[in-house]
Amino acid sequence: MFKNIIVKGIAIASLSAFLAGCQDELEEINENPNEAISAQPEYLLANSIKSNADVILGSDASMETTTLFVQHWAKIQYTDVDKYTVSISNIQNIWTNLYSQGLTDFTRIIEIGEQTGNVNYQAVGLILKSWTFQILTDLYGDIPYSEAGKIEQTLTPKYDAQKDVYLGLLNDLKKASELINPAGSPISGDVIYNGNLNKWKKFANSLRLRIALRIADREPEIAKTVVAELAADKSQLIASNDEIAQLNYLASPNQNPVSRDRETRDDYRVSKSVIDKLQELKDPRLAIFANKTVDATPTGYLGVTNGLPADSSAKLGFTKTSKLGDYFTAPTSPAVFLSYSEVLFNLAEAAQRGFIADKPAELYKAAVTASLQQFKVNSADITAYLAQPAVAYNPANFKKSIGEQKWLALFSQGPEAYTEWRRLDYPQLKPAYAGVLDGKIPSRLIYPTGEQALNGANYKAAVANQGEDRLTTKLWFDVF
């Protein structure tokens, strides 16, 4: 009996070894000799930057949501989304694309940098990861942050409070800035700064400045400390339009997503809110932001009121309303992540709040100038524009002066413009004409339904902390 057991054991062991050998041989046969065994950081970096840029300019995070909420654009067809009937798929797509694509790739770039000793890949990955988390928390509020992307540890990450996310990002960006070593190993695949590490440091510091102002109404002392540190050497911030953090798109099939969308659709127009403000201020950016109407109209430009019923918008007509300017629909139009004018507006606000000793009016004037120069407005027109009393800085209501001009400077940067409008409360926009939120404009995006199904306990904890999962629930940073 015992002998038979031994014989059977030997036979089973021999069979197992044979099968294991066969499996090894099959794996070798199925290996593609031309396929990389490990991810190449340059390909990950280029692809993930474009992926995120496509999100912030594309239908989900911009065209069908934030550019409508902030009334940069309006709908002349299919107007339900312009009335705040937000598509569940748009909400899910933003979350899924930023978490499963951008953040996953940026995390892998950081890991590769750590494994290879290339601190610059670590830093750039951390900067872009922080920027992505900033977009997510700006839109949704409390989000998975500290446990996000740690699949080996948990498939159901907890939601961190928005305050903790912002504070964490301030620390992450400081670490990234300190990691960068321009004299160290180079990076490839950089489609933003072409490997210029000094500019990446400026991007990191400028993101810290942005986030410091985000929390200024809630945590003024922390904001002041961060801003004072950054403003001590302004050359370490984005310091010209040549240093704007942006992705310059190419021709088809790598064109700007707005350009791709316009190839087959014609359902967007410039909002009446923007065109009216530009005309009121005799703003030379009008001809850049909007095209003249095809048919003759009294001023040559006509914006569309946000949230019109479908029959009302149809009566306006396609040829008597202003389309988005050619600058923004060109295949190579850039996706702007952070501009020079935004840095100056943030410094102006910091000065007005007493965080730094600079003169806010001078920084505000420089910010407006930078925006006009970004859009190639000539010097004479800039001088005339700034001379108008309606454009002059008002220290008694700095949020109005900065808010209205920042709203214009961020035109078509949907997520950022929407967040700054919520924070500064200017311009004072009227809710969509036929809006479905009882006379309110959305204050956030609701969480995707996938989270309720797959991460239910943490989703419920986030709602309990933040407030009802509604479009009208104000986020932590949105105090007033």
TrEMBL record:
Key word Lipoprotein present: yes
InterPro entries: SusD-like_2 (IPR041662), TPR-like_helical_dom_sf (IPR011990)
Source superkingdom: Bacteria
Annotated signal sequence range: 1-19
Keyword Ubl conjugation recorded: no
Keywords: Lipoprotein, Signal
Protein name: SusD/RagB family nutrient-binding outer membrane lipoprotein
Biological source species: Dyadobacter flavalbus
